[in-house]
Amino acid sequence: MSGSQRVASVSAAQAHGRLLLRDARPADRLPAGALLREALTPRLADAVFGLGGAGASRYFERLFQHPGTLWSYDITTLAELDGEVVGLVSHAPWAVLAQRRRSTLWGYWRAYGLRGLLKLIPRIRALMRASPAVPPDHWFIPCLAVAPEHRGNGVAHALLQTVYRHAEAHAPACSLYVPTSNATAREFYDRAGYVEREGVDSEVLHRLAGVRGRVRFERTLATGKPA
What we know:
Blueprint: E1 14-16, E2 19-23, H1 29-40, H2 42-48, H3 56-64, E3 76-81, E4 84-93, H4 94-99, H5 101-129, E5 139-146, H6 155-167, E6 173-179, H7 183-191, E7 195-201, H8 203-209, E8 213-220
Parallel strand pairs: 5-6
Antiparallel strand pairs: 1-2, 2-3, 3-4, 4-5, 6-8, 7-8
């Protein structure tokens, strides 16, 4: 599978009651930018991708529109409620995401320009160093977010079920990262059947955003390939 191939396709839009799950499109950049900021947590997103300001959403909007990167619409499924985008999940095989690193760097160049990119690079390195290793055969979820006013209504659960339908025939497990300090997210994934694995602390992230580091959570897929 190539790094530019859409891997989050739901083939056709799928309805869960009034909730509609569908492939993301470049035109979804405005709600996607806000949700990507929520996925990383606003404080961490603004410290790293907003370069210390409150502009993370607008940078995510630009990154989202370009295919073949770690932030692209082409690995993203959206949840709509009465025509409003209320949730988002990005997901792909870890090996596919690894292939996207070079194109992501070009995406950063386009979004930030040279001066912004030079400021961004050490922040990205700090985030990567605070990200525990992922087994190469896992399916990975870079981002999962629900708009704050729609949380607790099953949107995240529906998005995760979409991920599992794609992943279960190809991978033994799903992995994702959660900031160490995000107790709410850690409790949610624990209830969703995830097991907490490695954690990595980062003094740089703590200094930038008050985040000690990130923890990898893992969920075994019942019908996935044997580990």
